[in-house]
Amino acid sequence: MTHKERLFIGGTWVEPDGGHYEVTDPATGEVVGLAPEASPAQVDEAAAAARDTFTTWSRTAPEERAAILSRTAGLLQRDAAAHAELARAETGATTATARSAQVAVAVARFRRYAKGAVEPVATPLPPQVNAAGPLGRAAVVGAVAERRPVGVVACVTSYNNPWANPAGKVAPALAMGNTVLVKPAPQDPLSVYRMAAALAEAGAPPGVVNVVSGTSVAVGEAAVGSPDVDMVSFTGSTAVGRRIGEVCGRGMKRQLMELGGKGAAVVFADADLDAAVAGIGTTFSFYSGQICTAPTRVIVQRQVYGPLLEKLTAYATRLKVGDPRERDTVVGPVISAAHRERVESYVELGREEGARLLTGGTRPRGLDRGHYVAPALLADCAPGMRVVREEIFGPVVVVVPFDGEGEAAEDTAVALACDTEYGLIDYVWSRDVARAFRVARRLRAGGVGVNTVARNMEAPFGGFKSSGVGRDCGSYALSAYSEDQAVVWSG
């Protein structure tokens, strides 16, 4: 019998008012489990439970919060194999990705914020000598800035990583003394309930963590709009982020938004092309391109335009598209049939706009079940094309050539890279490291990779422009889930 999940509210597993809906495997279409459909009233109950627990939880010793987060990491590691299989089935990620980039990252984040819970929260400030005046006698005035928890945080998570993304919100929020209401993506919520179970087993008090799911927009709206919610942490599309931002603005709620991306990969003529292709090629394979940090928009200097296209084409065609459970599979399915059709429509749109399809963009032969699309490479693209400007969120790379030498080439490359509403992560490839860093400083993006697509998880993560608001990762996440309070005294 297919397992029926229940809502997690106030430390209790609760039957959903709206019944259940099927969560299906994108690779096969088979039912993975039945997820609960919460009612708006149950979302309100979950937010109220988080509110009722906040005062007690926020006053617990940091060492106690650290111990709970550390035990959670251990429990997730204990059951890592089962968790990875669930993640693979829910998302269509390859087994290797589910293990290393989903569950293992979640474990690492709980461990990191177990340490974060005991990081100093106070920053001493220089004393100030005040002359006598309307505010009192002459005195030396001291001050300290201290971080305080925000309150109840609604964590609205993305479908592309149901372990790392929620863990990156829940763990630092709890470390700072907040309580949370988690609303997972409807496509893959089952993993988030397993995370909640681990937190409960680790000793998180009832009401500290609450999870509600559903396919109805009303569920998310109730979570964001609840008067008991003080902050919204959202990962998802810019369009949805704008709507959430409007609600937060009306209620003066704090917000942390990681939104869309259209990462530019600037490749200069002196670049190591093999290294650039390996980095850009992650768009084709990692999560099947369903990742906002992917270098989807290649801006390449004319001198190496032809060689780069040849290498990218060869790279894409070598990747095995297929069952994510098979060891040699590199590209699994996208999350749903509707999303596959969206990706395919963008590929066709690119051709209509004048781009040249070098490979992919079609449904691979022999894969009759599942939502597969072969990695696509569009060449001869121009800045005004929709495929260049809009986030596709799939295994599609577009290539735009640019001309010029020296400073003029840098100016042109920067102008093309910044000609977008997005600004999450960009990339620069050049053997001239001084130039690479010079260009990086001019790019309007929250992060820039210089000759790499690697991430440093202590570095601030977030976007410029329509790619988001705020920063998380490392100690920046602790700041994101806290308020600064000034304590002042005189003597």
How would you describe what is shown here?
There is one protein chain. The chain is of the alpha/beta class and 491 residues long. The chain folds into 2 domains: 7-259 and 467-490, Aldehyde Dehydrogenase, Chain A, domain 1 (3-Layer(aba) Sandwich); 264-462, Aldehyde Dehydrogenase, Chain A, domain 2. It has helices at residues 40-58, 62-78, 80-91, 95-116, 164-175, 190-201, 217-225, 238-251, 273-280, 282-285, 305-318, 337-352, 386-389, 406-418, 433-442, 474-480, and strands at 7-9, 12-14, 20-24, 31-36, 122-130, 139-149, 152-156, 179-183, 209-211, 231-235, 254-258, 264-267, 297-301, 356-359, 376-379, 396-402, 425-429, 447-450, 468-469, 482-490. β7 (152-156), α5 and β8 (179-183) form a beta-alpha-beta unit. α3 packs across α4 and α4 (95-116) packs parallel to α5. One of its GO terms (molecular function) is oxidoreductase activity, acting on the aldehyde or oxo group of donors, NAD or NADP as acceptor. InterPro entries: Ald_DH/histidinol_DH (IPR016161), Ald_DH_C (IPR016163), Ald_DH_N (IPR016162), Aldehyde_DH_dom (IPR015590). Keywords: Oxidoreductase.
In short:
Belongs to the aldehyde dehydrogenase family. By secondary structure, this protein is of the alpha/beta class. The chain has helices spanning 40-58, 62-78, 80-91, 95-116, 164-175, 190-201, 217-225, 238-251, 273-280, 282-285, 305-318, 337-352, 386-389, 406-418, 433-442, 474-480; strands at residues 7-9, 12-14, 20-24, 31-36, 122-130, 139-149, 152-156, 179-183, 209-211, 231-235, 254-258, 264-267, 297-301, 356-359, 376-379, 396-402, 425-429, 447-450, 468-469, 482-490.
